[in-house]
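Q: How would the C-alpha cells look for this protein?
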Amino acid sequence: MATRVGMVSLGCPKNLVDAEHMLYNLREDGYEIVPDAALADVVIVNTCGFIETAKQEAIDTILEFCTLKNEGRIKAVIVTGCLAERYKEEILKEIPEVNAVVGIGCNEQLCEIIRRVLADNESVNAFDDKDKLCIDGRRIVSTEHYAYLKIAEGCNNCCTYCAIPMIRGRYRSRTIESIVDEAKWLAKVGITELIVVAQDTTYYGTDLYGEPKIAQLLKELCKIDGIKWIRTLYSYPERITDELLTTIASEEKLVKYLDIPIQHCNGEVLKRMNRKGDNESLRALIEKIRSIIPDVTLRTTLITGFPGETQEQFEELSMFVKDMKFDKLGCFSYSAEEGTPAEKLDGQIDLKTKEARNDAIMNEQMLISFDINEKKIGSQVEVVTEGFDRYAECYFGRSSADAPEIDGKIFFSSERKLRVGEYVKVAVDDVMDYDLIGTAVE
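A: Here is the predicted structure in C-alpha cell form.
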C-alpha cells in the first residue's frame, strides 16, 4: 500500500507553486497524495517565514500535526519552505516531534527523505545551496481554472525590512521558452487565467538577458490559445516602463490590473527602506499609468510604523492614500525581522502606534473602496464563477479587477446552473463592504 502524503502550504503564491512541484515529484515516485492532511501517513508543512504573524501561523500548524503524531494518527511531520530555510537548527531543537526540516535547496530530495524518516525513524536536517531549488518542471495544480505562473526565484532588491533575499537567495529568472511551455501545458489542462508571480516581476529577465523582459514575456503568453485572463503581481514602481504599460493597454488578454507594492510615499522613509522614489515621483507614475491605461485597477501595499517614521511622515502617507484613491490596498504594521538591517535601525516605534496608524489607513481605504464600488452599481462586469454559497444561496466569483485570495468577490444570482470556471456577465446591483452583489445576465 502506498504511503499517503498530505501537504499544508502556507504563505504566498510563490510558495504554493513550490508545494505543487513537490507534490508532483511525490506522486511520480509512487506516493499517494491525499487532500486532507490529517488523514495522511506523512504531513508536509510548507511554511512561510516572512513576517511574525506568518511565522506564528506556521508554528501553530506544525504543532497541530505534531499533536496528531503523538496521538498515533500520523507517522511523520516534515517542515519545508521559508521557515525551514530561515531557522535550520531551531525547529528540531524547539519542536523535537518534527521528523525532518528540509531547506528549499533540498526539495528535490523529499521523496528519499520521507523514506529515510519512515524506515529509520531518524530526524533529518537537509540543506543545500538555495540555487538548487528547481524552478522549472511539472506540478500538480491545486487551484481551479486559474494558476500561478512563477517566472523567477529570489530577490536582489534587499529592502531593509525584508528577509526574502536571505531566505530565497539571488534573483534567478526562468527562460521565456520554459515559462511559455509551462503556460501552454496549463492551458491544455483547463487553466483559463494565468497569474504571473515573482518577488519582483518587473525585474524579470535582467539576469538572463541583460535587460527586463517582462513585456516581451507577457506578449508571448498572450499568444497561447485557451488562456482568457493574464495578470501580474508584485511590480516594483521604479521598474514600470512605458513598454510594460502600453503592452498591458493593448493586449486583450492582459487584464487592466497592476499590483504595485510602494510601501510608503515619503522619500526619507523609502530611503531607510532601501527603496527608490518619493511622493512626487510616485504621484507622477500613478498619473502616467492611469493616462495610458484609463480603466486600470491599481492595488498597492503599505507599511506603517517603519523605524523613524514621524507623525508628519505618516500624515503625508495618509494624504497620499486619500489623493491617489487606490482601488485595492493592503496595509501592514512594521514587523522587525531578525537579521534584517531595519531591525537595528534607530527609532523603533511601539506596537500601539504602529497599529493605530495601520487602522487609520485601512479605515480611509474602506471609504475609498466603498465609493469606487458604489459607482459600479448599474454596470455590467464579466465574472469567473468560483462556487456556490449555500448559506447566501447565490454564486460567487471574481471580475478581472480582482485577484484571487487578496481582493473582493462578486456574489450573484443566476437562473441557470453554472459550473466553476465559467465566465458570465453580471449586472451589479449593490455593494457589501469590499464585495459586489449582482445578477447574472442571460
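The longest helix spans residues 351-374.

The chain has three domains: 4-132, 146-374, 380-440.

Upvote if useful.
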